[in-house]
Amino acid sequence: MDIAHELSVKQEQASIAEFFEKNKHLLGFDNPVRALVTSVKEALDNSLDACEEASILPDIRIEISPSGKDEYRIVVEDNGPGIVEENISRVFGRLLFGSRFHAHRQSRGQQGIGISAVLLYSQITTGRRMNVISKTTEGEAFSINMSMDIKKNSANIHNRKKVKSEKKSGTSIEVYVKGSYTLGKYSILSYIRNSAVVNPHASITFVDPNGEVHTFERCSTVPPPVTTEIKPHPYGIEVGELLSMFQKSRNKTVSEVLTYELYGITNRILNKLCSVTEIPADTPCSKIKRKDAEKMTRELREIAIRLPSSNCLSPIGEELIKKGMNREFESKFTVTYTGKPGIYHGEPYIVEVGLLYGVKGSSDEVDILRFANRTPLMYQAGSGAIISAVKSVDWRSAGFDQRGGKGIPYGPGIILVHVASTNIPYTSESKDAIAAVPEITDDIIKGLIYCRNKLRTYVTKKSSVEKLKEKYEIAEIIPEMAAKSASLVSDIVPDSSLTVSRILNAIVVEKSIKTEENEKFIVITIKNVSPKKQKFRLYSESAGINFGADEKGIVNGAKIVWDVDIEPASVERYTYHNVPEGEGNINVYIKGLPVDMVIGADVI
Amino acid sequence: MDIAHELSVKQEQASIAEFFEKNKHLLGFDNPVRALVTSVKEALDNSLDACEEASILPDIRIEISPSGKDEYRIVVEDNGPGIVEENISRVFGRLLFGSRFHAHRQSRGQQGIGISAVLLYSQITTGRRMNVISKTTEGEAFSINMSMDIKKNSANIHNRKKVKSEKKSGTSIEVYVKGSYTLGKYSILSYIRNSAVVNPHASITFVDPNGEVHTFERCSTVPPPVTTEIKPHPYGIEVGELLSMFQKSRNKTVSEVLTYELYGITNRILNKLCSVTEIPADTPCSKIKRKDAEKMTRELREIAIRLPSSNCLSPIGEELIKKGMNREFESKFTVTYTGKPGIYHGEPYIVEVGLLYGVKGSSDEVDILRFANRTPLMYQAGSGAIISAVKSVDWRSAGFDQRGGKGIPYGPGIILVHVASTNIPYTSESKDAIAAVPEITDDIIKGLIYCRNKLRTYVTKKSSVEKLKEKYEIAEIIPEMAAKSASLVSDIVPDSSLTVSRILNAIVVEKSIKTEENEKFIVITIKNVSPKKQKFRLYSESAGINFGADEKGIVNGAKIVWDVDIEPASVERYTYHNVPEGEGNINVYIKGLPVDMVIGADVI
Question: How do beta strands A367-372 and A413-421 pair?
Answer without folding.
Answer: parallel
